[in-house]
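dumping these here so i dont lose them again. two proteins, back to back, each one seq then C-alpha cells. dont judge the mess
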Amino acid sequence: MKLSIIIPVYFNEENLKPLYEDIKEKIIDVIDYDYELVMVNDGSKDASYGVMRELAAADPNIKTISLSRNFGSHAAMLCGLAHCTGDCAVIKAADLQEPTEMILDMVESWRQGNNVVLAVREGREEGKGQTFFSNLYYWMVRKTSFPNMPKTGFDVYLLDRKVIDVLSMLDEKNSALTGQILWSGFRTGTIGYMRRAREIGKSRWTLRKKIRLVTDTLFSFSTLPIKFVSTIGFVAFIVSLVWAAFLIAAKLTGVIDVRGWTALFVFNLFSFGVVMLTLGILGEYLWRTFDATRNRPPYIIEDSNIAERKEGE
C-alpha cells in the first residue's frame, strides 16, 4: 500500500517546515506502508518553492511541482492528483489548521471500503463572521446542488485510486473539485475534526476567490441561475398582463387622465434591469461553454523534481 499526501501551496513559506515536521511525527514515523508527499506550488511569489525543494532534498519521497502562475486551488489539486502514485490520496492544506493525525483515521475508513473519506468540521476556532459566511455557502450548496454536502463543509478528503482516475477524466474547467467528488457518487465515509485558528501567516482566501467559488458551484452543478431567469421572466409577464388589463379598464371607464409618468419610468427601469441581469447570466453560461471549447490545460507546470526522482530510481 502507498499513501499520497497532496499539499497545494500558495504563499506558505513559513508553514512548510513546521508542516513537514508535523507530518513526519504523526504520519511518516508511525505508518508501516509507503508514502509520498506531492507539494504543488500554485504560482506563489514568495520563497515557498525554494523551501519545497529544500525539503525534497532531505526526503526522497517528496515530489515538488511549481506551476507557471496562480491557477487556483482547483487546478493545483488536480495537478497533484495527476502526478501522485498512491493507492489513495489525501488533500491537505498547508496552513496547519487541520490536525494531521486525522489522516490515519481517514486511511482506516478507506481500508473499511469507503472510496471517499471526508473530514467534516465539527467546530472552528475562528471568527463568528467567517464561520457564518462559510456555513451560509454550504447551506446554499445543499439547497441548490448537493443535498449530501455536510452542513459545515469539508476541505480535507481522501480519494481512492478509482476516484482519482474519474476526476482526471472529467476535464472540467471553472468547476469545484468538492462538487465533482460529491457528484461522482462513490461510497463515502466521514470523520469529524475541530478546525484550528491560523497561527502562521495570513490567509489568501480573498472575497474575490470566495465569490468565484460560489459562481463556479452554481453554474457547474445547479440549475438555479437559469431557473431564476425563467422565474423572473414569468413573473414579469404576469405582472405586465395584470397591469395592462387594469390600465385598459381604467381608460375605458375614464379613470385615467394624463398621469402615471413616474410609474412608467420606474417600470421601464425595472424591465431594463431584468433584461441586463438575464443577459449577464446567459453570458456567464456562454463564456463557460466557450472556455471549455478552447481546450486550454487547467494548469501549466513550470518546474518539478519528478523527472529527477525517476532518474534517481
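---- next one ----
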Amino acid sequence: MKKIAITGTAGFIGSHLAKKLIKKGYDVVGIDNINDYYDIRLKYGRLKEAGIDREKIEYNKVVVSDKYDNYKIIKLNLEDRDNMFKFFEKEEFSAVCNLAAQAGVRYSLENPYSYIESNISGFMNILEICRQFDIKNLSFASSSSVYGLNKKQPFSEKECVSHPVSLYAATKKANELMAHSYSHLYKIQATGLRFFTVYGPWGRPDMALFKFVKNILEDKPIDVYNYGNMQRDFTYIDDIVEGVFRVIENPAKPEADWDAVTADNSTSSASYRIYNIGNNAPVSLMEFIETIEEVLGKKARKNLMPMQAGDVESTYADSSLLSNSLGYKPSTSIEEGVRKFISWFRKFYGI
C-alpha cells in the first residue's frame, strides 16, 4: 500500500483528494492546522465526513478515522519544523501532496506575513523533509494567479510568469522555483499544479460561488467586481482531484532532450513539471451569476464595484499539456457544477 501525506487535508481540495486516495487504496495521512481563516465548522464538517471526530483532535496528536482504516490526521502547522520533522521521521512516506497554504488574493493585502510564514517557510519545511527522508514523489499546489499581468490567452505553462499582481501569486511562483531547485539538487520528482478557480461542494466561503449563493438566498446584494467585466476558467472540484491523482500516480521525469536555450518553462532537465488544471472554457462573471440565478430560481441584487487590487480581468487555461502527458482534461460544465454545489449548500446549511 502506498503511503502519502496530504497537507491541507481539512481544506477544500485536500479533503476531496483524501477521499479519492482512500478509495484507491492509499494509506493516507492528513496534516492540517485547522486555522480560522474561514469558518472552522466547514473544515470540521469535511473531516467528519471522512470519519474524523472533532472532539479527538488536539495539536500534534494523531487521530484515526472511524470510517476508513487507511486514513488518519494530525493537527500541525507546516512552520512547526521540529514537530513536522519528528512526525515524518516516524511515518516513512512514499509521497507528499502539499495543498496547505494561506489562500486568497484579497486577504494577502491585509495580512501579508501569514503568506510568507505558511506558503514560504511552511513549503521550505516540506522540501527539506522530502530531502532528508528521501521522499521522491512530491506534488504541490500552485495557482493560476501566477500568470499575473500575462495577456496572451489561453495561459500556457510554456510562457514566462514573472509579473504577479498579488503577494499570494508571488508566493506560489516562489514555490515553483524552490521546488525546481530541490528537484535539480536532490532528484526529487516535483510537480506543480496551477489550479484555475476551483469550485464545488464543500467549497471555501471566501470564493465567489459560495458568497453569491449565500447572499442571494439571504436576500442580500452580491458584490460584482470590475462591473461584471470579468472571466474565470471555473474548474469543478472532481476534475481538479482527478488531475492531481494522475500526477501523483505519474511522478515527474527529466526531459530527455531539454535544452536551456530553447526549452519552455514547464519542463526541465530535472524531474520537474508544471501543469495547468483548468476547464479550458472561461465563463463571464455575468453568465456565471445567471447560472446561479437559474438554479436557485431567484434573482440576485448586484452591487457593481470597481476592480479590486490584486485581481485580474480574465483567466483561461491551456490544458493541452495535462491532456497530452496524462491523458486527462477537465470536462464538467458550469451548469452541472453549480447545480451540485447548490444542492450541497442547501443540505449542509438546511436552507
